[in-house]
């Protein structure tokens, strides 16, 4: 790992603490679990302490999924207490989303670090376009599809979200709002989606990275417990703030800002594989 100075460690801790604050608010506000923020920040932070480039993205995704577990649970419980969660949709996801997560775990174990960054970058661009170009009147249908179609969509949400290390909120929000569901219900339900993704995804990340050489101190597979221990208390503390904001603010400016952020992340990851 090489020598690490006190200033480098201090910078790492500050970056992680800042990521925790932003991720916690976003978890409650958008139901996204914060992974879209955590993964690119982890990628930079783990580089500071000398983690090999081939492992950094896997470690970032796995650690993000571990952190999303308690954050999404608390966000889900807060939204459910307000009666905003579509429990019927969530129950229909119980097998579909973990199926996608399982498939993603198998891919995760074999894909290269640069391949994983490309996946994150491509989906980030699509998410950014969706956020920036979003119009409230956009609709594909008047109600959500059911049966095999819903199972397939749930599996896709689980698959892509696991490879990105995100809680599935942005993808599920898009799905629900395009089928005439109110945004507040979509946000609330997406917090539950984050639970279904993060728990099996976290376990799969440990399995996929088990025994890998070159991982930083306090890592089990592709999960670094130092980052988890630092960020989870921060995200749990501020997630309810995001929930209150979600029920009291117009989010258009935040959507545009987050969309631009996703473009910046995509550009950074594309540049890193050139």
Could you characterize what this model shows?
- It is a single chain.
- With 274 residues, the chain is mainly α.
- Helices cover 75% and strands 1% of the residues.
- It has a two-stranded antiparallel ribbon.
- Strand 1 and strand 2 form a beta hairpin.
- Helix 1 runs antiparallel to helix 2, helix 1 packs across helix 9 and helix 5 packs parallel to helix 7.
Keywords:
single chain; 274 residues; mainly alpha; two-stranded antiparallel ribbon; 11 helices
Q: How many helices?
A: 11
What is the gyration radius calculated from CA atoms? 17 Å
Please bin the fraction of helical residues. Answer: over 70%
Note the gap between the termini.
24 Å
Backbone structural class? mainly alpha
Basic shape = globular
The strands making up the biggest β-sheet line up spatially as: 1-2
Pattern of helices and strands:
HHHHHHHHHEEHH
Average pLDDT level: 87
Model regions low in confidence, pLDDT < 50 over at least 5 residues: none
Strand content: under 5%
Number of strands: 2
**Main sheet attributes: strand count, strand direction, barrel closure:** 2 strands, antiparallel
Summarize the SSE layout with pairings.
Blueprint: H1 6-30, H2 35-48, H3 53-81, H4 87-92, H5 96-108, H6 113-133, H7 147-164, H8 169-178, H9 183-208, E1 219-220, E2 223-224, H10 225-246, H11 252-272
Antiparallel strand pairs: 1-2
Helix pairs in contact: 1-2, 1-9, 1-10, 2-3, 3-6, 3-9, 3-10, 5-7, 5-9, 6-11, 8-9
């Amino acid at each position: 790992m090489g020598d690490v100075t006190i200033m480098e460690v201090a910078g790492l801790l500050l970056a992680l603490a800042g990521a925790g604050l932003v991720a916690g608010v976003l978890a409650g506000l958008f139901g996204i679990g914060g992974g879209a923020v955590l993964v690119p920040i982890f990628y930079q932070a783990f580089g500071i302490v000398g983690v090999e480039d081939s492992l950094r993205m896997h470690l970032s995704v796995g650690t993000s999924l571990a952190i999303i577990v308690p954050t999404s649970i608390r966000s889900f419980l807060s939204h459910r207490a307000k009666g905003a969660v579509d429990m019927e949709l969530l129950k229909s996801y119980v097998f579909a989303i973990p199926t996608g997560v399982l498939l993603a775990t198998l891919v995760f174990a074999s894909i290269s670090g640069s391949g994983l960054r490309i996946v994150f970058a491509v989906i980030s661009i699509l998410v950014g376009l969706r956020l920036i170009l979003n119009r409230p009147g956009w609709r594909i249908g008047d109600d959500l599809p059911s049966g095999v179609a819903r199972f397939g969509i749930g599996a896709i949400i689980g698959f892509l979200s696991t490879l990105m290390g995100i809680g599935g909120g942005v993808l599920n929000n898009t799905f629900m709002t395009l089928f005439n569901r109110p945004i507040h219900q979509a946000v609330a339900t997406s917090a539950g989606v984050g639970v279904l993704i993060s728990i099996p995804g976290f376990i799969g990340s440990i399995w996929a990275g088990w025994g890998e050489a070159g991982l930083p101190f306090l890592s089990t597979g592709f999960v670094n417990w130092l980052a988890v221990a630092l960020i989870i208390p921060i995200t749990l503390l501020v997630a309810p703030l995001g929930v209150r904001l979600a029920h009291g603010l117009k989010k258009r400016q935040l959507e545009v800002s987050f969309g631009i952020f996703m473009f910046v992340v995509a550009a950074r990851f594309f540049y890193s594989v050139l």
